[in-house]
Amino acid sequence: PPPREPPRRHRDSQQQRLSAIEQRKAELNREKMETLEVKTALAAAQKLSHELDVKAAGAREHLEHVEETSRNAKRLLANHIAAKRDLATRHELERAIRALDAQSKQLRTAQARGERHEES
């Protein structure tokens, strides 16, 4: 006897189940692709984050170097200002010494004249 076909209702039910399975399979494949896209985006974000961390560390190091250079420049400037002040003070002292020498010489000259005047 020829194989019997299942009743139409049974065939429709199988077709609906098969269709539901195919639909669920398509949804799972979509979710799988979305998950893969998310993982790829996450990996790219992590790589970018690492690169930014490396650049930030380099920037911090550079900033520390700049700050150290700035401190050294300030110290050199302070030393330069102090040296100029010391030089000005030295020149003032030398002028004062020359003035005192001149006064001393004048006094000695006047004293010598006075002694000569008394002798005559």
UniProtKB/TrEMBL annotation:
Residues covered by region (Disordered): 100-120
Superkingdom of the organism of origin: Eukaryota
Assigned keywords, A-Z: Coiled coil
Residue stretches in coiled coil: 11-38
Name of the protein: Uncharacterized protein
